[in-house]
Structure formats: C-alpha cells, structure tokens
UniProtKB/TrEMBL annotation:
SUPFAM superfamilies: FKBP-like. Belongs to the FKBP-type PPIase family. Keywords: Isomerase, Membrane, Rotamase, Transmembrane, Transmembrane helix. Residues 144-239 form the PPIase FKBP-type domain. The keyword Transmembrane helix applies. This is Peptidyl-prolyl cis-trans isomerase. Residues 1-13 have a biased composition (Polar residues). PROSITE patterns: FKBP_PPIASE (PS50059). One of its GO terms (molecular function) is peptidyl-prolyl cis-trans isomerase activity. It is an enzyme of class 5 (isomerase). The keyword Membrane applies.
Length: 249
C-alpha cells in the first residue's frame, strides 16, 4: 500500500510546471519569426545593394557613352571647322592669287607718273590725304593685321617714280600694321581699307621720311629730304608677317 501511494503521488515522467511547454512553444515561435525577419531583412538589403550597384554600373556606362558621343561630336565639329577653314583659306588664297595676276596683267610695270584720279580727297586724323580709286569688298584692315599690298610710289612735285611692286615682278609687299615696319603715313593711310580696295595716299614729310634723304646702295638720292610722297596701293589679301624690306626703292 505504501508503494502504491508513493507511485500515485509522484509526477509523471517528462512533466513540467504548469504552462512551461506553452511558453517554450511561444519562445520557439518567436525565435523562428525573428530568424525569418532577419533572413528577409538580409535578402531585402542584398537586393537593394544589387540594385544600387546595377544602377551605378548602368549610370557609369551611360555617362561613358554620353562622354564618348560628346567627344565624337566635338571631334566631328572640330574636323568640320578645320575643313571649312582650310576650304575658306584655299578660296581666299586662290582669290588673292587671281587678284595679283589681274593686277600684274593690268600693270606690267608701275606707271612712271601718277595716273589722274578724280575721286574726292579725304583726310585721316594724322593728316594723310587719300582718294579711293577702287572700292574693295573684303574685310576691313585694322592695326595688328598682316596685309599684302601691290603699290607704286612717286615724289609729289616732280611726279618721279621711286619704287613699285610691279617693277619687281608683281611680288606683293606684306606688312604687319602697328609694328613700325613702314612709315607712319603708310600705316595711317591704309588702315580702314578693305581687301580689294585701291587707294591713293598723299603723305606729308612729317609722316614720311622727314628731313632725311633716302639713298640707294650707291649713294644716289631716291627720295629727297622733306619730300611729300604719293602712293597708289591695292590691298590684295591678309597674309603672314613679311620677310622683306619696306617699299622705299
């Protein structure tokens, strides 16, 4: 009886406190829920990272493609500008050559005396008188530009010719204005001309050679002291700085 009573009062094998199994099930359920949440959060974070990396790669490729297209467009534009500039320069050079040939044909030699000119006499601020013999239709000549001219020069009063580019085979005389390469009166007189224009300049001694006589290598006086000079000049084309002497004979 005693043994039977002890067995009846003892707890069954595996039994716990009331509600323990339910709490354990809840804990396991919560742990599983947290693990799922962590897994889901990790997957979402990974997907976001993959999307960000993919977007960055696509953006970099698009930027690279845009840069390549921009470079290609810039190169094409530059090549077109160079081609157009070359074409324009060739056309200008061809026109200038044609102008020179036409002038040489019309003037196989510089006239011995100044041809008569009836156009109105104008005056620069420095005192150079000029007459427009033939209007030009090219760009305007300004200081700093290098221009090729055909010319003939005479002494006013005697009308004696002292120099002419036509007497040198029609080789144009190139001068960079504003560099002191020619007498002051020449620079002032041709500034404002247009390419293709022919102009007569009347230069007083103060803007020419003043009281100094100009002589050739043998000592012969070519331009006397205090001479007023007459130049008929034609602006042929813009060119490069000259490598030759000034037109003084």
């Amino acid at each position: 009886m005693t043994q039977t009573t002890k067995n009846l009062n003892s707890s069954p094998s595996g039994a716990g406190r009331p509600g323990q199994r339910q709490r354990e099930r809840e804990l396991r359920k919560r742990r599983r829920a947290r693990r799922r949440q962590l897994v889901i959060s990790g997957v979402v974070a990974l997907l976001i990272l993959i999307a960000a990396v993919t977007w960055a790669i696509m953006a970099a490729r698009e930027s690279s493609d845009q840069a390549a297209r921009a470079d290609a467009h810039a190169t094409a534009t530059a090549n077109a500008v160079v081609a157009q500039s070359t074409q324009t320069a060739n056309a200008v050079n061809a026109q200038a050559t044609a102008n020179v040939q036409s002038l040489i044909k019309a003037n196989p030699k510089g006239p011995d005396t100044p041809p008569q000119v009836t156009s109105p006499v104008q005056k620069t601020s420095s005192g150079v008188q000029y007459q427009i013999i033939k209007a030009g239709d090219g760009d305007t000549i300004q200081s700093g530009r290098t221009v090729a001219f055909e010319y003939t020069g005479w002494i006013k009063g005697t009308n004696k010719k002292f120099d002419s580019s036509y007497d040198h085979g029609g080789q144009p005389f190139a001068v960079t204005l504003g560099q002191g390469q020619v007498i002051k009166g020449w620079e002032d007189g041709v500034t404002g001309m247009k390419i293709g224009e022919t102009r007569r300049l009347i230069i007083p001694p103060s803007l020419g050679y003043g009281s100094g006589a100009q002589k050739d290598q043998s000592g012969k006086v070519i331009i006397p002291a205090n001479a007023t000079l007459i130049f008929d000049v034609t602006a042929v084309a813009f060119t490069q700085p000259p490598q030759q002497s000034s037109p003084t004979g």
